[in-house]
# Entry
Amino acid sequence: MTVAPPVQVEDLDWWQVVDEGAVGAVRRAATALGGELVLPAERVADLAIVATELVSNVHRHGTGGTVHLRSLRSGDLVGVELVGVDSGPGMSDVAASARDGHSTAGTLGIGMGAISRLANRLDTYSMVGSGTVVAAEVWGHPPPENLPGAGLVRPIAGEASSGDGYALRLVDGRAQAMLCDALGHGQLAAATAQTLTGIFRDAPAGRPAAVLDHLHRHAGHTRGAVVAVVEFDRSAGTLLCASLGNIAGWVIGQSGRRGIAAQPGFVGDRQRRTIREYEYPTEPGDLLVLHTDGLTDKWDLANYPGLVGRSPVVIAATLLRDAGVRRDDAGVLVVPVTEGR
# Structure
């Protein structure tokens, strides 16, 4: 069996967009990150425009908007992603909003058009009355294939780092994912989450139960975490899951959502455990959603027309916006059954 890491994502800062000052702050942070990643100078310039226009749109149209910055790596390829999230009036016609000259705020209307031209990848979801989510990637060179899924984490209010973490990898071409919630909050919890994601990425190839057992046996020096490990065998139409603790898991399909079982406990508690693995049938079009207890389970994708067809990161950001709580670290991971979203 072979293990291949897909794009490595590093979640960095979240900015509250409360005034125009956020535009310059995010632009400077994004271009500094582009420089650290050694993006070509012309792409750093493009990144500055994308950041400026994206944050400006959140400021002009959003209510309680935020922008998230993260780095993307795939071998020698590097990129920067910006995720803008707001709870503003939303857009009734996203396609029209991406055309130059279209504006609902009395501006020149070049923001979304500039982003769509300069970003290697752009995905947007908007619903009238609920707000808008925009995810834009700027790579130094043509980007690699899409991730098999995507996650987002956000720290508890007042902390800079989140104790929730996630990672994805490919095992003989099958998508395997891990979501964890370290005990506690702050830097020590974040260090535990970072350690667990590294252990997961480097773990020997195996089914989810074997990988979770590997995590459990190698996490004794950490403060511990609740963890779920899942694997999609798309050719067989099955989902395999092994979980310790209260990671919520849901398979979303045409008939609604089905919950995924979990064992009590947490990895790193020094107890010998027999890890149980569960198998669930899936169909093309199904969607897996994992989240920590930093999100409530009072969400329903049926209330978001068209959202299941958007990219995993946009789905994750929408759920984090509407179901996330600020009194806890929050993490959400979305993996589609159908490849290529």
About this structure: The longest strand covers residues 8-17. Residues 150-336 form a domain with the Phosphatase 2c; domain 1 fold (CATH 3.60.40.10). The chain has two domains: 3-139, 150-336.
